[in-house]
Amino acid sequence: MGNSALKAHLETAQKTGVFQLTGKGLTEFPEDLQKLTSNLRTIDLSNNKIELLPPLIGKFSFLKSLVLNNNKLTALPEELCKLKKLETLHLNGNHLRQLPAAFGQLLALKTLSLSGNQLRTVPTQLCGLRHLDVVDLSKNQIQNVPDTVGELQAIELNLNQNQISQISVQISHCPRLKVLRLEENCLELSMLPQSILSDSQISLLAVEGNLFEIKKLRELEGYDKYMERFTATKKKFA
After folding, report:
1. Which of 55, 58, 100, 235 has the fewest Cβ atoms surrounding its Cβ within 10 A?
2. Sequential DSSP letters for the chain
3. How confident is the prediction along the chain (238 residues), in pLDDT tens digits per residue?
4. Domains along the chain?
């Protein structure tokens, strides 16, 4: 991509606060963007070949949305965690194995998508994020859901297409969790905490494609209570 084309994109971004450059084969984060650290609200560099997010990402203090789907990121810099206004972070289809230690400092974060990475567990850093609404961890390599999940504030948690065979009973204590997606995992029915049905806020539980038949789920104690929540929610949105 030529310099003149990049320059045109930068000029537009300066006016709009949005820098979008997708599917251009970029191998690195455009250094020239640092001229716009105080302008940019949105950066979208999806469908490129970026392997590294430079520390200068921490300078975009007004950034609300960062989208880097389908790149080649293997790690994220700690500096990312300085983005105090960041509300949306999409990193689907990369090679991430973990999140920075200070990730819990992204206090404005509402939507986090990490589908199609190489995470092996639900990152504990997510538990401190009070405004988190939607967390997508589908298509990773997660094998179990640890006790810390009970502190997660999300409304929707997507864990479809992982390798989950164990879930902590603490998941039923998530204060705001309404939608739990666990399709296509390795769950035996006996490993699904019954308190999810009998004693949680969850009103949509998606568990198709595990190691049990859905009709067996309906025989569990607490299923009636779950159906009450399910139906009430359905009526609300009908």
Report:
1. 235
2. --HHHHHHHHHHHHHHSEEE--SS---S--GGGGGGTTT-SEEE--SS------GGGGG-TT--EEE--SS------GGGGG-TT--EEE--SS------GGGGG-TT--EEE-TTS---B--GGGGG-TT--EEE--SS---EE-GGGGG---SEEE--SS---EE-GGGGG-SS--EEE--SS---GGGS-THHHHSSS--EEE-TTSSS-HHHHTTSTTHHHHHHHHHHHHHHH-
3. 567 778 888 999 999 999 999 999 999 999 999 999 999 999 999 999 999 999 999 999 999 999 999 999 999 999 999 999 999 999 999 999 999 999 999 999 999 999 999 999 999 999 989 999 999 999 999 999 999 999 999 999 999 999 999 999 999 999 999 999 999 999 999 999 999 999 999 999 999 999 999 999 999 999 999 999 999 988 877 6
4. 1-92 (3.80.10.10), 119-237 (3.80.10.10)
